[in-house]
């Protein structure tokens, strides 16, 4: 497989896994928030009517959960890519590999 083609395939896999992970993480986080806080998460944390600590908590939680989900999804995608092609995706290859 040519390097350019592999890079395009990896780009699509990376994007797809990131989007899927973000959607799943957001749904899980919203459900968890509803259970823990007994109300919906803030629709717009920047709204001055939203309590500042609720806004900060929501921002921290969404940032952390989304980043973690994206990283885990991309690792799984990289494992699949490596099993399928016999090598790491081009952007993950170390110099000299």
Automatic annotation (TrEMBL):
Pfam families: DUF4235. It comes from the Bacteria. InterPro entries: DUF4235 (IPR025329). This is DUF4235 domain-containing protein.
């Amino acid at each position: 497989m040519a390097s350019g083609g592999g890079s395009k395939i990896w780009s699509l896999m990376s994007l797809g896994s990131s989007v899927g992970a973000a959607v799943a993480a957001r749904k899980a986080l919203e459900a968890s928030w509803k259970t823990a806080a007994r109300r919906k998460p803030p629709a717009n944390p920047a709204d001055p009517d939203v309590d500042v600590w609720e806004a900060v908590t929501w921002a921290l939680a969404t940032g952390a959960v989304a980043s973690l989900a994206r990283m885990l999804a991309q690792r799984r995608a990289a494992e699949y890519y490596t099993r399928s092609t016999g090598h790491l995706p081009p952007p993950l290859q170390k110099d000299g590999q």
